[in-house]
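Structural prep section.
Before we set up the soaks we want a predicted structure of the protein with 87F in place, mainly to decide which crystallisation condition to try first. Input record follows.
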Amino acid sequence: MASDPLGASDKAQSSTAKPQNGSSSNKSAKPAKEKKPKQKAEGQQAAGDTRKKEMKKETKEGLSASKASSFADWYTQVVTEAELIAYYKVSGCYILRPGAYFVWETIQRWFDGKIRESGVQNAYFPMFVTEEQLNAEKNHVEGFAAEVAWVTKSGSSDLDRPIAIRPTSETVMYPYYAQWVRSHRDLPLRLNQWNTVVRWEFSNPTPFIRSREFLWQEGHSAFATQAEAEGEVFEILDLYARVYTDLMAVPVIKGRKSEGEKFAGALFTTTVEAFVPATGRGIQGGTSHCLGQNFSKMFGIDFEAEDRSKQLVWQNSWGLSTRTIGVMIMVHGDDKGLVMPPRCAQTQVVIIPIPNAKLSVEAKQAMAEQADKFAGELRALGLRVALDSRDNYTPGWKYSYWELRGVPIRLELGPKDMEKESCVLARRDTLKKEPVAWSQVASEVPKLLDTIQHAMYEKALAERDAGIEKVTTWEDFVRALDRKHLVLAPWAYEEEIEKDVKKRSATAEAMGAKTLCIPLEQPDLPSGTKCFASGREAKNWALWGRSY
Ligand code: 87F
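Run finished without errors. Recording the tokens verbatim:
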């Protein structure tokens, strides 16, 4: 099975979805039921319904499902209640609301800057593909055919020929690469698209993680030499890792896919793999492929080298999608809702003045002015600040409201604080509070945001590391999976063994485990170490796990 950034090739069922017709990979089966948010119980209707001034009675803001005991419900509630996602009429398609789109734009800005510096240019190719074009490289499309969506009509008349909607753009772009590359002087050709692709998934649609249309970037490069191409593969992989670690505070493991898990059209596939402790599953975070000369052969992308010889180009393709956002939510969220890493939070600080009924009009006024002053000061530093001075909600309700949305810092300003010229900073990640003098707010808040960003990463890293076990026997392998862990185990690269492990490790409740990657950073492998499953001489440590 080929791999791709969204892990579309992984037909895994979630523990809540039933296998279809007894098979988890039956692509023509009905879609697994989408986990839509349940109708809320009374007293918990969408706050929007009741957020009117005349209705004084407040609704509870917050989640009813717990992350530890009902993860799938928890996830659905978080993404909807925190207003990241709205469910849509077409199953498997979701609306990305501003809170989610902001995160994507943050990733986009950062990654786009990095690839431009490196010499990549953005372009846009059409979303429609003719059948011949799509099938030009049969091998790579074959395994995916069931996921391709087709346009067959315009109005009420049938099209002469159905037209596919791009599931990825290799076959869209490469015929033009063949035209545009003539000489070594035309190389490297490095283009990127920020677009959406459509893959008609049948297994367990999940917002951000697996949807039928998703946003991503797809980069496609052509080089004169293998060395240059390989250099880019790892350069991009590093950038993908940094999107996770530096922006989302999510640790990832860089590695190579096994032969069975790589993109079928590639020479080799590299990946960044994350871990979701709550479910014990690994998740592919992005992939960077070295395509070798597979596609240049098929599409005739050749050039005249300096010595006048005709040569095929060396190609790569690489993709990172909005799945990033889902991973971030799953890793950091808690029972109060989202926990946003400061670097990608649309609101980094919320200021909440806390007047009480006893306060004089003047004192209230002074408090409002001070709150405003903080907002101005912090915005002037470039921070993203909300001031919640709505007077129809209690402070407690507002706390829950902003906690649900994961805002990293809440600045509380109460009557006592006004007397002491101080305020309270409450951290979303630890829920701890500390007093800060007014004069220190402008210096402390940016520092605290930085502290939170790093603390979130360290916490996730510790949890991730505690969730990986190094084993050498089958018994320990199974025990580790049962404990919802990923497993680092010695492997001889035997494909049949990988398939066999997947079968043998599947249980009534849980899917089988497969290799997530062969980590680039390898622990020492003493010579003579045997594969945990076949008993034959191991080649490397592989990272195994149940996965999305
Ligand atoms: C679904 C239908 C048709 C994944 C598909 O990973 C074709 C495909 O080629 C398909 N799902 N893939 C693999 C995508 C490979 C590659 N493309 C560019 C990437 C990164 C971005």
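Observations: Confidence is low (pLDDT under 50) at residues 1-31, 40-56.
Flagged for discussion at group meeting.
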